[in-house]
Amino acid sequence: MSYFWLEPASLYFPPPETADRFGMLALGGDLSTERLLTAYTQGIFPWYNPGEPILWWHPDPRFVLFPHKLKVHKSMRPYFNRQHFRVTYDHDFPAVMTACATADRHGQQGTWITEEMKHAYIGLHQLGFAHSVEVWEDDILVGGLYGIALGKVFFGESMFANVSNASKYGFITLVKDLEAAGFQLIDCQQATHHLRSLGAESIPRTQFIQLLENLETSRWHAAHWKNGII
User: Fold this and answer.
1) What is the C-alpha to C-alpha distance for residues 113 and 99, in angstroms, rounded to an integer?
2) N or C: which end of the chain has fewer CB within 10 A?
């Protein structure tokens, strides 16, 4: 199969249905703010290893979570009853990205969160499009995640936990706060047992694309979340 190479001077992406069976859609291009926002608006995201060209993906099916379908298991309730962790937003985006990049992951060597990716997403954060969730225990950063917010969709990118249940606590808090702010969809990209246990599910690509259109991802509303999700 031949793949579409992105032109440096154009923000055009090929139609999602031209992706291969693994979801790879295109190669090349760059990680400029305009290209990344154009990609996410269409449900496309970059994911590649160091030394590779930038690879752009649009999987079918797509793994998502509808906030109202969030499952909070009994084992997590004592953590919330005791407010075991403290959760903040956008207080230390670079630290969360770095922790996600260095987190140990079963069956994975190295990281796809390259220095190039860090620079690009920190830039998106500074503009108010990318957001971090920090989970603190005794004022120590012990978990978190980051992603992109466009329209009423949050596109999750990566998470980490240095102590048990820290990332789960942060994710559950985020989902509840997103729902309260009117968000209707969380893109989880790829299926994992961890996220499925929290209520995430697979939907067809065609349905995912329609949801992105309905939820106005093309409206690039920049905001900073230090004082709450808006």
Assistant:
1) 10
2) N
DSSP assignment letter at 197: T
- List the one residue out of 172, 181, 177, 188 whose CA is nearest residue 151: 181
Partners of 130 in beta bridges: 148
d(CA 218, CA 67): 21
- Tens of pLDDT, residues 186-224: 999 989 999 999 999 999 999 999 999 999 888 888 999
Which letter, b or e, does each residue of 191-228 get, where b requires 16 or more Cβ atoms within 10 Å of its Cβ?
Answer: eeeebeebbbeebebeebbebbeebebeebeeeebeee
Which residues make Cβ contacts (< 8 Å) with residue 115, sequence separation at least 6? none
Cβ atoms of 223 and 230 closer than 8 Å:
yes
